[in-house]
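Researcher: Sequence of DNA-directed RNA polymerases I, II, and III subunit RPABC1 follows. Predict its structure.
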Amino acid sequence: ATVTTTLLSEPTVFQTQTFSSLAPRSSLPSATMDDLPNDAHSKEVVRLWRAWKTVHEMVADREYELAEDEISISLDRFRNEFCNPDGSVNRGKLQFSARPSDAMLRKHTPPATDANPDPVPDCGPIWVEFLADKQFGVAQIRQFAKYTITNNYKTGIMITHVALSPAARKSLASVENLAKIECFLEDDLLVNITHHELVPRHVLLSREEKIALLKRYRLKETQLPRILAKDPVARYLGLRRGQVVKIIRVSETAGRYASYRLCV
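Model: Prediction complete. Tokens:
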């Protein structure tokens, strides 16, 4: 199939939407609330099972190493492994870590130079934790960041069932030079937005691919169209400012075509 490349494209339709607003009912996992007894614990189990599946898909899509059975866990197995005797979910058991794959290490390694002939990848292990705190402020951010940094994780993902306080969100910037800390609401992970029919495929370019792209079109990176770091898909992929993502769309008239966006 022919792939047409363009540097200019219409803004993506999902940029101003939330994770959950993109999800049609048909995109949800087969088990629904109506399939289970109408009680709080059963609903919580389904919600957290969906969030668990989505965050594992997200980590795998970032090219961390995960086993297939970790990603495609069934609802029954989830209930058996992570629920308390009373039927509630033990969030403390949902935490997990993953290591970057060889492909991810290659993509995140800067090109060798005379000054730096043996560059080190700017990625590393990731830590994911479902937090049960009823309030989430600066103290919880600091505690999570301390654990992430002390245990040599390069990235930490907090999944909460309550929104961060403004002060807590602001405090995330204070640890950026030590580790990348991300926060997602459980409600934002009930479906995988990248599986939505309106969301085209996004592929992160390596630094070498970015350099080749700019050279090919004789552009400065600031001349590329932009994607915000807070864009739902940018957050899903963990994009950092300065990275370039390739967006592949399918058109009935133009076939497959690609555009590029700079994360800002």
